[in-house]
UniProtKB/TrEMBL annotation:
It comes from Coprinellus micaceus. The gene is UNG1. It is an enzyme of class 3 (hydrolase). Pfam families: UDG. PROSITE patterns: U_DNA_GLYCOSYLASE (PS00130). This is Uracil-DNA glycosylase.
C-alpha cells in the first residue's frame, strides 16, 4: 500500500536526515515558516515534478554529518533537469556530465593539486562530501525545468539555521573531553549571493577562514574564480590548525 504524501512529508526529516543534523535542527520543524514550507511542497508534489527526489533533499546531511564538516560551500538552487540534482550543490548524478560551473571547479582543483585529474563524465561530488565538505544549496528543492521556482518559500530561513548550527558547533578533536576543539571551518563564498549570505551571518574571521571570489559559472569564472587557489589555501589552513589528518 502506498504511503500518503502527507505522511511522508510529515516524517521526512526524521526518516532521511542524519541524526546529528536532525537533533541540532529539530526545533525548526515545529516553527510556522516550516509548516508553510511543507504545505507548499505538498501542493507542488501533487501536480509537478520536483527535484531532487524526496529521499535526497537532505542527502547533504548524510554525506557530511555535523561533526565531520571541515569546509562549507553553498550554492543557490538545485539543478532542475532530469538526473541532475541529488541534494548536493554543484553535484550531478550519473550519467549527467559535469555542468559548466563544476568543470571550472575541477579546473581549479587540478591547478591547486597537480595530481588531481578532472573527470569529463563524473559530476558526483558525494566522495568529496564524505571527506567533510558541506555542499549546501540555500534552497533545497525546485520544480522541474523552472529555476528558482521554490525560492523564498522558507528554505532560505532553514538553510540559514543550518549554517548557524555548523558555525556555532563545538567539537573536541578525536572525541576527547579535554581535547583541542575544532570550532573553525573553511568557508568558500563564490559569487555575490553566497558572499551576502555569509556577511549576514557575521563570520568570526579569527575562528574561521573565509575565502571569497567570483562564482565558477562561465559568466564569471575568469573574473576571479579561476586562479583563486581556494582549495590549496583551505588545505594549508586545516593542516596548520588541526594537523595533517584534517586536510581534505
Amino acid at each position: 500500500m502506498e504511503i500518503p504524501l502527507k505522511v511522508v512529508l510529515d516524517t521526512l526529516e526524521q526518516d532521511t536526515m542524519h541524526p546529528s543534523w536532525y537533533n541540532a535542527l529539530k526545533g525548526e520543524f515545529t516553527k510556522p515558516y516550516f509548516a508553510q514550507l511543507k504545505k507548499f511542497l505538498a501542493t507542488e508534489l501533487a501536480s509537478n515534478t520536483v527535484f531532487p527526489t524526496l529521499e535526497n533533499i537532505y542527502s547533504w546531511s548524510r554525506y557530511t554529518p555535523l561533526n565531520n564538516v571541515k569546509v562549507v560551500i553553498i550554492g543557490q538552487d538545485p539543478y532542475h533537469g532530469v538526473n541532475q540534482a541529488h541534494g548536493l550543490s554543484f553535484s550531478v548524478l550519473p550519467p549527467t556530465k559535469p555542468p559548466a560551473s563544476l568543470r571550472n571547479i575541477y579546473k581549479q582543483l587540478a591547478d591547486d593539486f597537480p595530481g588531481f585529474i578532472p573527470s569529463k563524465t563524473n559530476g558526483n561530488l558525494s566522495p568529496v562530501a564524505s571527506q567533510g565538505v558541506l555542499w549546501l544549496n540555500t534552497c533545497l528543492t525546485v520544480r522541474a525545468h523552472k529555476a528558482n521556482s521554490h525560492s523564498k518559500k522558507g528554505w532560505e530561513i532553514f538553510t540559514t539555521q543550518v549554517l548557524k548550527t555548523v558555525l556555532q558547533r563545538k567539537l573536541n578533536i578525536d572525541g576527547e573531553a579535554d581535547g583541542k576543539q575544532r570550532e573553525g571551518l573553511v568557508i568558500m563564498a563564490w559569487g555575490l549571493p553566497a558572499q551576502k549570505t555569509f556577511q549576514q551571518l557575521g563570520i568570526d574571521k579569527k575562528k574561521h577562514l573565509l575565502l571569497q571570489s567570483a562564482h565558477p559559472s562561465p559568466l564569471s569564472a575568469n573574473k576571479g574564480f579561476l586562479g583563486n587557489k581556494h582549495f590549496k589555501k583551505a588545505n594549508e589552513w586545516l593542516v596548520e590548525k588541526y594537523g595533517e589528518d584534517a586536510a581534505d
